[in-house]
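Re-run requested by the PI after the first attempt was lost when the workstation crashed. Everything re-entered from the original request form. Ligand of interest: adenosine-5'-diphosphate.
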Amino acid sequence: MRKAIYPGSFDPMTYGHLDIIQRAAKIFDELTVSVLNNKLKTPLFSVEERVKILQKAVADMPNVKVESFSGLLVDYAKSRDVPVVIRGLRAITDFEYELQNAQTNAKLSRGELDTMFLTTSLEYAYLSSSSVKEIASFNGDISMCVPDFVAELVYQKYGFLKK
Ligand code: ADP
């Protein structure tokens, strides 16, 4: 069985993430979307909230499950017996950081964990969780960035009603 993990902050999940999830789910038999519990970042949504959002978004994808994890990705992947990590690439600016991470993980896992990159679909190339938060914090329109139910939750966080 071909298994992969798609790790990230997903704070919040955007259409860009969803696009990568849908495409990776076609390539692998089982895809685990894993929310990183990163104590260094101050997120807008708690890990539990982010997991719930993703679970709702992938409810109609039978081979996709959602989990959270903390600690090293290589240890987490090994504990789940998963040899492949999926990451999305938007632009050349993502590349340097992602390449370094992929090589570090390959080294740490002694070659057992590979990283597979899916390039963003063009319509989502501009999208990031940070820009969604910035726009929403000024009560701007994020309907082209995230599903309606996510937009509602984001506006609530900033004390606005859904636009
Ligand atoms: P992280 O904090 O781990 O970078 P993110 O939630 O920002 O987590 O992103 C998770 C993964 O999804 C990363 O590989 C990122 O490059 C990718 N990603 C984010 N936004 C998009 C997008 N619009 N299109 C394609 N991939 C994306």
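Saved to the shared folder this time. The pocket of adenosine-5'-diphosphate is lined by residues 8-10, 14, 16-17, 20, 87-88, 90, 94, 120, 124, 127-129 (CB under 6 Å).
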